[in-house]
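Work Package 4 report. The design task specified in the project plan requires that, given a folded chain encoded as structure tokens, an amino acid be chosen for each position. We show below one input record used in the internal validation round.
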């Protein structure tokens, strides 16, 4: 496992941006974390894996805040959790086997599709 040295303040600022995006929009922190980690010396696959690790505490904290405010729907919790778990397993397996260029292309396409959906179909 690679350890990347860098400016602590810069990392705190980047982490703050990721947390702000994830908590405000209910997701998307990873889409900010991956490019920030890549620009700060992490390899493509390590940036993706680290972004997932970073999202765990952000999501847990956001979840608690949303629960206390009553902003959730229990009816979608279990089926969505099952799908996310299966998808997460598949994604982690694919990340380990796909070439870096393929990971980069798929990630960019997903970002574009999400952006188009938000702009035109919501």
């Amino acid at each position: 496992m690679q350890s990347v040295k860098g400016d602590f303040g810069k990392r705190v600022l980047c982490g703050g941006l990721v947390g702000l995006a994830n908590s405000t929009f209910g997701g998307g922190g990873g889409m900010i974390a991956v490019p920030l980690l890549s620009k700060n010396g992490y390899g493509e696959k390590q940036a993706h894996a680290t972004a997932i690790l970073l999202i765990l505490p952000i999501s847990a904290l956001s979840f608690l805040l949303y629960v206390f405010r009553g902003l959730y729907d229990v009816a979608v919790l279990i089926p969505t959790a099952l799908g996310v778990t299966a998808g997460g397993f598949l994604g982690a397996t694919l990340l380990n086997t796909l070439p870096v260029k393929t990971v980069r292309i798929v990630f960019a396409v997903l970002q574009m599709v999400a952006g188009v959906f938000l702009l035109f179909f919501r």
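The chain is about 80% helix and 0% strand. Validation will be extended to a larger panel in the next phase.
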